[in-house]
Amino acid sequence: MTVPNPAAAVSSIADRFAQVRGRIAEAAKAAGRDPASVGLTAVSKTQGPEALQAALDAGQRVFGENRVQEAQGHWAARRAALPDLELRLIGPLQTNKALEAVELFDVIETLDRERLAAALAAAMTRAGRRPSVLVQVNTGAEPQKAGVLPDDADALIAVARDRYGLKVEGLMCIPPVDEDPAPHFALLAAIAARNGLGVLSMGMSGDYLAAIAAGATHVRVGSALFGERNKAPAPS
Ligand SMILES: *Cc1c(COP(=O)(O)O)cnc(C)c1O
């Protein structure tokens, strides 16, 4: 394999954004949905400054990051010049990082336990900022994976809303890598529907078309936009 020169890599990022956006629109139409009802979250974890700039140049403003500190490095300085930037935390959050997360992110997609709901509520009071929240559901009940178990999701949603006053807007999931994702997307959609939640963050580079067919409102796409990551931490 040859190492691409940075200019070529940058132009191919623009091409990939156009291609992924086109596919999202087609999948939405095929599902009888308005293409504008599916948001593209560009997963910018592990990317360097040229790639971030190429995404911004392609008009992208919604980004997903899975580590608080890396996200600060990517976005804290750029943020002032980008009033329409939307940052979404898609990786697991420790309670001792809740304040930093609340200060930086617009949406926290990975609420999965009551202790974290409490920490987020306290952090929001301190920060004077109220990002919206998604509950991450471990639809495959995988022991190593973050997320509330499907049977415990309704209770956590209720506690987060009612006891802690969090703005719970929807659900997020990462299906098991070795399974058909469709039943996992359907399960997430069913849990959202019975709880009156409208936002479904589901679908990654390998399965975002299936996720859109199942009702995704936000797809989280990394490698299909930026190319393969060198050092991808396993999503959990
Ligand atoms: C890394 C990551 C993605 C993007 O994965 P790709 O397969 O590169 O599109 C999406 N969601 C989460 C939670 C991730 O950690």
UniProtKB/TrEMBL annotation:
Cofactors (names): pyridoxal 5'-phosphate
PANTHER family, per the entry: PROLINE SYNTHETASE CO-TRANSCRIBED BACTERIAL HOMOLOG PROTEIN (PTHR10146), PYRIDOXAL PHOSPHATE HOMEOSTASIS PROTEIN (PTHR10146:SF14)
Modified-residue entries (N6-(pyridoxal phosphate)lysine), positions: 45
One GO molecular-function entry: pyridoxal phosphate binding
Organism: Brevundimonas naejangsanensis
UniProt KW keywords: Pyridoxal phosphate
Annotated Alanine racemase N-terminal domain residues: 37-229
Protein's name according to its UniProt entry: Pyridoxal phosphate homeostasis protein
Function: Pyridoxal 5'-phosphate (PLP)-binding protein, which is involved in PLP homeostasis.
Similarity comment text for this entry: Belongs to the pyridoxal phosphate-binding protein YggS/PROSC family.
Signal peptide span: none
One protein family per Pfam: Ala_racemase_N
